[in-house]
Amino acid sequence: MAQKGLSSAHIMEEAVRLVEERGYDNFSLRELAARLDVRPASLYNHIDGIGEINKAVAMKAADMLNRTLTEAVGEREGDEAFLDAARAYRSFADGNPEIYKALIRMPASENEDIRRAAFASFEPLRAVIKSYGAAERDMIHFSRALRSAMHGFVELTSNGFMQRDTVSREETYEVLIHGYLNVLKGISGK
Amino acid sequence: MAQKGLSSAHIMEEAVRLVEERGYDNFSLRELAARLDVRPASLYNHIDGIGEINKAVAMKAADMLNRTLTEAVGEREGDEAFLDAARAYRSFADGNPEIYKALIRMPASENEDIRRAAFASFEPLRAVIKSYGAAERDMIHFSRALRSAMHGFVELTSNGFMQRDTVSREETYEVLIHGYLNVLKGISGK
DNA sequence: TGACAGGACTAACGGTGTTAGTATAAAATG
DNA sequence: CATTTTATACTAACACCGTTAGTCCTGTCA
Fold it and tell me: Which residues of chain A have pLDDT under 50?
């Protein structure tokens, strides 16, 4: 029994599925191995350890986010492109909460690949922002602030915060992104 | 050996210290027990399990955040109170990252105590916002958006994101909170 | 055909939270 | 004061976790 067609790519693929299914915090190498019909130790012939899997899932998340934003923007520019991309960001994070978590939790601090991928994942939205023509410094501040707000909103709501008031969270998100759109128009001289 | 003066409160106290010291993700009951000079199993005479500890740490975090914001605001109202509170929020999260993490990670979804405590922790800043006199609905949206942005900024930066551009993150945070202040003035008719 | 290398295996280590059962000291009751 | 009860510590064990060392089989290549 010395061949099962196992490969690093195949492992990562199944890992992504397992993370989303069982949750980022409940993911285990043992369960992953079981799914691949293999003993846990056998995984180590193809990967270095669980850290490599976490990184791969995070990279996959960045790629998925990038595609989501790209598709939301399409060939467009302007307000509707901006708003749709912002909605798509939230929709992606809400629809794939565990994969999204994998991206956020992965400490980019010590990992240039992740840093680059995370930066790149936001690029489609950044392009829309750029097209408004604000000064670069303002654009960077704005883009960081927007990303903060969107991520913060997504994480707080998904963790059950912001539900004490009866006011709809969907409405808050709309107000939030329209607010940012106004600011964007402001810093680019309308 | 049937008495060591152990108590639930004492356990939680040491747990808070241990979480901040070793990190939220590296915290373990066994190490906590060792610190208290007790066998792990003995903890179960005073607590239900690690979940109760996580909750207690989160509650403590909410309380600390509340005190921090209260102190930052003081008896004041207006722009400086707003800005200082927003700065204090970030400073608290940056200075106590693991305790802060405990608050955010604790799923408020299934825990009314946490939901209330988290809501209350933000109250000092909410009071400052209220004093600007905007309509309640607008105020709620604004307060949620601000909280999202502050939390998102803190978490993203602490995880090593937003460091691809050379633009200072401190400056971004200042731009961010001044931006929100402008919006706040806008919705309250200056 | 024989050697080699890759990829699977078993067994084990030290870590985690948790439970069951036991002993003992303190507190409560007669 | 003596006895019973209760509280709190203990040991031992279970089931999980990631990971490593050592082994064996099998497909490939000289």
Answer: none
Angstroms from B77 CA to nearest CA on chain A: 23
Whole-prediction pTM value? 0.96
| Contact check, Cβ <8 Å, B115/A153 | no
Question: Which domains can be identified in chain A, with CATH numbers?
Answer: 52-187 (1.10.357.10)
Please determine, for residue B190, whether its predicted confidence score (pLDDT) is greater than 80.
no
Residue showing tokens 């043992």? A30
Give percent helix, percent strand, percent coil of chain A, each to the nearest 5.
75, 0, 25
pLDDT digits (tens, 9 = 90+) for B41-67: 999 999 999 999 999 999 999 999 999
Q: Is A23 left (phi over 0), alpha (psi -120 to 50) or beta?
A: left
Interface test with chain B among A148, A175, A187, by most B beta carbons within 10 Å:
A148
Q: In chain A, which among 11-50 make CB contacts under 8 A with chain B? A: none
Among all residues of chain B, which has the CA nearest to that of A187?
Answer: B179
